[in-house]
Amino acid sequence: MGNTDHLYVIYSESEFTSEGDGAGGFWSVEDGWGPLKTATRFSREEMAVYKLPFCPALDAVWIPEAEIDVQKHENGSEDAHPLKWFAVTCIRQ
Hints:
Layout: E1 8-11, H1 13-18, E2 26-28, E3 32-34, H2 44-49, E4 61-64, H3 70-74
């Protein structure tokens, strides 16, 4: 989806921690919650029309892909941890 400038992913801390191995906090339009490598990337324009998916904790947020430590999250590293974001960084619908 979208071009490669300023791409965003959808992230849920509760989904991230519920997977046990810390690999499931990212949203894929095709596969649902899963690892970062399968997450759908959205442009700003797509963010304006795509609704955040449901998760029981209602904590899904838009995260700029450029701010994620991709290597840690794609490899399931023990150093990967839930992403913490302030309201200024999160873009909610």
